[in-house]
Every structure is written in structure tokens, then in C-alpha cells.
Design brief:
By secondary structure, the chain is of the alpha/beta class. It has one domain: Rossmann fold (3-Layer(aba) Sandwich). The protein has helices spanning about 15-25, 35-45, 55-60, 95-100, 105-120, 130-135, 150-165, 170-185, 210-225; strands at about 5-10, 30-35, 65-70, 75-80, 85, 125-130, 140-145, 200. The strands form two sheets. Strands 2-6-1-7-8 form a five-stranded parallel sheet, sandwiched between helices. It has a three-stranded antiparallel sheet with strand order 3-4-5. A hairpin with a 2-residue loop joins strand 4 and strand 5. Bound molecules: 2'-deoxycytidine-5'-monophosphate. 2'-deoxycytidine-5'-monophosphate (DC) binds near residues 38, 131 and 132.
Length: about 230
């Protein structure tokens, strides 16, 4: 049986994960958050006191890492690092920068590739990331490039951090968003860019509800997924 795949790429804070999670639930697809996988490698480097930008040292650490993805009874994706559930730990703010740095290392990307492709071979997936439509699943049934203005994305990220009880300053969050865009978009290996055959959806000025319906309409239209499947 051929499983269907939807690739959602775009910069951080465009709403990819929240929207993809809800769309997956609505369509009965598996939601795969590939950023969580890079975050797990970033966390491993940080815990070992390794500079996440030091390519050779990070690459040498990879054979010692057992990274696994699992789905709990809640249907949500959990990440495991050498057997430990690190789903919460990878969300800490300083893991974001570590993840972005290790993600620029080609050995890291190669190391994580098969895990992502295997998941798409075995399930209907909505996979979110930066290079899903361009590199990981170039044959995806539908590719969406989801973006929004940096200020709108920083605003969302700022609120999310406050809601989680973490301290944050808006200007700092905006600087981090811009810096991460620069790093993710300018790296040599699999930089963030829109695939030629991807649909561009800009969520600046749209709330989550509006973005959700726009994407669901697009998916139903393009994949012929009927409402009865919901
Ligand atoms: O989506 P996120 O913010 O959780 O991703 C964390 C980092 O991982 C981000 O800086 C970009 C990187 N990443 C990537 O390079 N390729 C992916 N497919 C997913 C994430």
C-alpha cells in the first residue's frame, strides 16, 4: 500500500507544528515533527558540553546516540535519547539554538534521514520541517511552504514562552527568530527554501483557526481527502 505524505516546511514560528498536528488528527495521518529530532541531537550535545557548531566533534558523538521516536496513547510524538523520554527537555529555549547549529552539520542530517523516510514509508504522514519537500520527501503528494513575517512569528513565540512560564523579552525573541532564519536559510546542507512545486501559504495576519481552514481546504482539494475521513 502506498501511503500519502504531506510536507510542511517553513521558518520557525509560522505555525507549522500546531497546524500540522491538528491537520493530522483531522485527516487520520501521523504527525511527524522533524525539528524535535534535531532538537534531540542538540540536547545531547549540550548535555555533553560539546560545542553544537563543532562539526567533527558532533559527528563523532552520533554513533553513541540512540535516538527514537514514539507515539504515546495521547497520539503525540515523544522523543527518546538513549532510552530517556526527552520530549519536555528539548523544548527549553536554549536547546533551540543548539538544534539550529547541529542541523547545519551534514553528518547530522544524513544520520537522521532514514528515520524520517522510514516513517513516511510506513504511515500516512504530515511531516513538518525545513527540507521535507526539497530533500527528505521530494516525491511528497503535497508540499506546503508555510511562512509569516518575522515580527508575527516572534510575537507567537514570545507568547508561547510566557505561557510556559519561561522568562522572555520580545526584542530578544525577535533577534533570535531573525538569527535562526539566517542560519537555517544560509547553511550549505539542505537550507530552508521553498520547493518549486510547493504551495506558499503566508499566515501573517491570520489566526490559527483561519490558517487551519485554509490548509485543510488546500489538502482536501489536492489530495482528494473526503470529509468522511475526518
Ligand atoms: O522546528 P524547530 O524549531 O523545532 O526545529 C529546530 C531546529 O532544527 C531549527 O533551527 C531548524 C532545524 N531543522 C532542520 O534543519 N530541518 C528540519 N527538517 C527540521 C528542523
Amino acid at each position: 500500500m502506498k501511503y500519502r505524505s504531506i510536507a510542511i516546511d517553513g521558518p520557525s514560528g509560522a505555525g507549522k507544528s500546531t497546524l500540522a498536528k491538528r491537520l493530522a488528527q483531522e485527516l487520520g495521518f501521523l504527525y511527524v515533527d522533524t525539528g524535535a529530532i534535531y532538537r534531540t541531537v542538540g540536547l545531547a550535545a549540550r548535555r555533553r558540553g560539546i560545542d553544537p557548531a563543532a562539526g567533527e566533534i558532533v559527528a563523532a558523538m552520533l554513533p553513541e546516540l540512540d535516538i527514537a521516536m514514539g507515539y504515546g496513547p495521547d497520539g503525540l510524538q515523544h522523543m527518546f535519547l538513549n532510552g530517556e523520554d526527552v520530549t519536555a527537555a528539548i523544548r527549553e529555549n536554549d536547546v533551540s539554538a543548539c538544534a539550529s547549529k547541529v542541523a547545519a552539520i551534514s553528518e547530522v542530517r544524513d544520520f537522521l534521514m532514514e528515520m524520517q523516510r522510514r516513517t513516511a514509508r510506513e504511515h500516512d504522514v504530515i511531516m513538518d520541517g525545513r527540507d521535507i519537500g526539497t530533500v527528505v520527501l521530494p516525491g511528497a503528494d503535497l508540499k506546503i511552504f508555510l511562512t509569516a513575517a518575522p515580527e508575527a512569528r516572534a510575537e507567537r513565540r514570545y507568547k508561547e514562552l510566557l505561557e510556559r512560564g519561561q522568562q522572555a523579552e520580545f526584542d530578544q525573541v525577535l533577534r533570535e527568530v531573525i538569527e535562526r532564519d539566517r542560519r537555517d536559510g544560509s547553511r550549505k546542507t539542505a537550507p530552508l527554501r521553498q520547493a518549486e512545486d510547493a504551495e506558499l501559504v503566508d499566515t501573517t495576519g491570520l489566526d490559527l483557526e483561519e490558517s487551519f481552514w485554509r490548509l485543510l481546504g488546500l489538502i482536501r482539494d489536492r489530495l482528494g481527502v473526503k470529509e468522511e475521513n475526518a
